[in-house]
Amino acid sequence: MRIDIVVPFLLADCTGGKSGFSLEADTLEEAIQGLFAEYPLLRHHVYNEEGQIRQHVLLYYNDENIEWLDNRQIPLQTGDRLLVLQAVSGG
Q1: Does the residue 65 lie in any domain?
Q2: Are the C-beta atoms of 82 and 7 separated by less than 8 Å?
Q3: At 44, which helix (H) or strand (E)?
Q4: Maximum CA pair distance of the chain?
Q5: Total structural domains in the chain?
Q6: 80: CATH
Q7: How far apart are alpha carbons 87 and 24 in whole angstroms?
Q8: Is residue 91 part of a domain?
Q9: Which Gene3D superfamilies does the UniProt entry name for this protein (predicted)?
Q10: Strand, helix or coil at 72?
Q11: Are β-strands 64-65 and 81-86 bridged in parallel, bridged antiparallel, or unpaired?
């Protein structure tokens, strides 16, 4: 199944200039692993040194933050998407 991936324009340099594309995977976990296998530089911007999602980054599977999911072995459906969101803070 194909899942649509959306990354912020600021991180498109990590994905060959693409902010929207799709990947083939069977489950959400496979899609996440495939995303970072294909674009390893993106992993550095999403995860910290301890392997946790960085404080100002959110990964959304459709309308749910993946941190709130009990299980990432969710079978993908047509129309599913994974969004990488980068919060901007400061004053």
Answers
A1: yes
A2: no
A3: helix 40-46
A4: 42
A5: 1
A6: 3.10.20.30
A7: 27
A8: no
A9: 3.10.20.30
A10: coil
A11: unpaired
